[in-house]
From TrEMBL:
A Pfam match: YjeF_N
PANTHER family linked to this entry: ATP-DEPENDENT (S)-NAD(P)H-HYDRATE DEHYDRATASE (PTHR12592:SF0), ATP-DEPENDENT (S)-NAD(P)H-HYDRATE DEHYDRATASE FAMILY MEMBER (PTHR12592)
Assembly mode: Homotetramer.
Presence of keyword Isomerase: yes
Any one GO molecular-function label of the UniProt entry: ADP-dependent NAD(P)H-hydrate dehydratase activity
Assigned keywords, A-Z: ATP-binding, Isomerase, Lyase, Metal-binding, Multifunctional enzyme, NAD, NADP, Nucleotide-binding, Potassium
Protein name per UniProt: Bifunctional NAD(P)H-hydrate repair enzyme
UniProt-listed GO biological process terms: metabolite repair; nicotinamide nucleotide metabolic process
Gene: nnrE
Positions of AMP binding: 460-464, 493
Organism encoding this protein: Actibacterium atlanticum
Length: 550
């Protein structure tokens, strides 16, 4: 229950391993892959802007020193064959191009010229600028190449995404906008005072075989524009390599085997969340959400509402004496029980029908919360435990004490600040300005945190990453067609914690509940749209379920 159909996202090393395996198996040659990649870009341009296919236009193609540049030469040739006027710039020495790129450079040279120097007059305005400078091979910050890059960019002021072909050039990135790390979605930056964005935001990014993680996390969605993935005939090649111990060597000698457990997935629509006709309320579990005292119970009530709407059979709020009146005045379908401290909690948890717990929202930071969390985690009966907000911050002084108690049916749901309190060294590595690629990513950080904590970690953001200690990892991206900017509102995280708790009460495993919960949370926000506040989120879940056919 709750498992979704998911799309694979690859790292640059995994993509290289897949390509190299296909080439080594003689499934395809590198030259043919490059041809398909170039054709995929041209097809994607014409699909995106059919006007450009109708009549010849002018294109500027910026080629770099590697295979990304090789794709650029193919694109130049195909557009020229289509009757376009094409101007090609090359950054780097043609003699040092890798073999397939060199072949395509030579093929292009039979049709047109290549300039390496930035001319004072860049000629008439093109309809399309193709960025084929650097792809998955960018390993250090852009410096000199960015001069050419920016000159072209500034000359034609590609200033916004609502450009119309014929009036402003469209900027098309081959594989990934140059300078963006395809593993981390970060820009590799020079360690200089005026270091800053050196990539150019694209209107369209055309990647190959699979999207890369960097298209979906950190700055990726901000700079890729629309991302499409062209099929280059590698389907069926991304499974485990036949001999994982002896992967084929890449150009740089570094080529890990691609095993399914290493691949990150994009979270998709969860399946099987409907209820059976014969179900009764006890078949769908009983969630307990712990609350803070007077004036502090709103967060727990939001979480409880999320748990109930997502289908937990019963939901109880546990409140200290000072919070009872407020909760009683506000709750109807949700039950209420007085729970003052860890002793009360232990007594309540004697009831094994309480199979999922949500702790943290509004509970307060301090000893009482810490003791209650430890009591819940020490309980011998295995139940789902979602820890958020104050339940995480209460362990800021001694995260190891929390990690020692956590187990595989727990989910931590930190935002950036809470993550840094529990995993300061990991957060520091994640937040450092990268100067070398592939850079340390939010995926790497969340996987490291899950391993250390010994449970599922859901690291929130528009690029929410969910990882298990065994390395299973999914990304729930609220970007591109799923952007949900109104979700950044007070109480939204409390509802998410409740949704995950409700799913665990229904028997969904920790990782699947976190993935499905994050997906449903974004969909609920998108269903409501502008003006969303946290109270609206649980109320949109029925409509999201209806769309899912649940
Ligand atoms: N390997 C293959 O078979 C295929 C690769 N394809 C293309 O090849 C790309 C990957 O090619 P490469 O691995 O050659 O990598 P790139 O073409 O992305 O760049 C590698 C080159 O750039 C240099 N470099 C890296 N960062 C630099 C910087 N900041 N400043 C200056 N030079 C820098 C490297 O030393 C190397 O020479 C993909 O993104 C994709 O576009 C496609 O043609 C499909 C097939
Ligand atoms: K590129």
């Amino acid at each position: 229950m709750g498992q979704s159909l998911m799309v694979e996202l690859l790292t640059s090393a995994q993509m290289r391993a897949i390509e190299n395996a296909a080439i080594a198996n003689k499934t395809v040659t590198g030259l043919e892959l490059m041809e398909r990649a170039g054709r995929g870009v041209v097809d994607a341009i014409f699909a995106e802007w059919p006007e450009l296919q109708a009549a010849p236009h002018r294109a500027v193609v910026l080629c770099g020193p590697g295979n990304n540049g090789g794709d650029g030469f193919v694109i130049a040739r195909l557009l020229k064959d289509w009757g376009w006027e094409v101007e090609v710039f090359l950054y780097g020495d043609p003699a040092k191009l890798p073999p397939d790129a060199k072949t395509n450079y030579e093929r292009w040279c039979e049709m047109g010229g290549v300039r390496s120097e930035l001319p004072s007059d860049l000629g008439s305005k093109p309809a399309v600028v193709v960025d084929a400078m650097f792809g998955t091979g960018v390993t250090r910050p852009l410096t000199e190449p960015s001069d050419l890059y920016w000159a072209v960019y500034e000359r034609w002021a590609v200033s916004n995404r609502s450009v119309h072909p014929f009036s402003d050039p469209v900027w098309v990135a081959v594989d990934i906008p140059s300078g963006l790390c395809s593993d981390s979605g970060k820009e590799l930056e020079e360690d200089v005072l005026d270091g800053g964005a050196l990539h150019v935001p694209a209107h369209l990014t055309v990647s190959f075989h699979r999207a890369k993680i960097g298209h979906h996390i950190a700055n990726g969605p901000l700079v890729c524009g629309k991302t499409v993935v062209a099929d280059i005939g590698l389907e069926g090649c991304s499974g485990p390599l036949e001999d994982a111990k002896h992967p084929p060597e890449g150009a740089d000698g570094c080529c890990p085997a691609v095993s399914p457990s290493e691949i990150v997935h994009l979270a998709g629509a969860p399946r099987d969340l409907g209820k059976e006709v014969a179900d009764h309320k006890y078949s769908n579990g009983h969630a307990l959400v712990l609350s803070g005292g007077e004036g502090k119970s709103g967060a727990a009530r939001l979480a409880a509402r999320g748990a109930l709407r997502v289908g937990a059979g019963l939901v109880t709020v546990g409140a200290p004496p000072s919070g009872m009146a407020e909760c009683a005045a506000q709750l109807t379908a949700i039950m209420l029980k007085q729970i003052r401290d860890s002793k009360d909690l232990q007594d309540v948890l004697e009831d094994k029908r309480l199979n999922a717990l949500c702790m943290g929202p509004g509970m307060g930071v301090g000893r009482n919360t810490r003791e209650m969390v430890l009591a819940a985690l020490a309980s011998e009966y295995p139940r789902g435990v979602v820890l958020d907000a104050d339940a995480l911050t209460s362990f800021a002084d001694d995260p190891a004490e929390l990690f020692a108690a956590l187990h595989h049916t727990c989910v931590l749901t930190p935002h950036g600040g809470e993550f840094a309190r529990l995993f300061p060294d990991i957060a520091e590595a994640l937040n450092a300005t990268p100067t070398k690629g592939p850079a340390y990513s939010k995926v790497d950080a969340t996987r490291a945190a899950a391993k250390r904590a010994g449970c599922v970690v859901l690291f929130k953001g528009p690029d929410t990453v969910i990882a298990s200690p065994d390395g299973r990892c999914a990304l729930n991206s609220a970007a591109y067609g799923r952007a949900a900017p109104w979700l950044a509102t007070a109480g939204s995280g409390d509802v998410l914690a409740g949704i995950i708790t409700g799913l665990m009460a229904r028997g969904v495993s920790a990782q699947s509940a976190a993935e499905a919960g994050a997906w449903l949370h974004v969909e609920a926000a998108r269903k409501f749209g502008p003006g969303l506040i946290a109270e609206d989120l649980p109320e949109q879940i029925p409509a999201v379920f209806r769309d899912l056919g649940a």
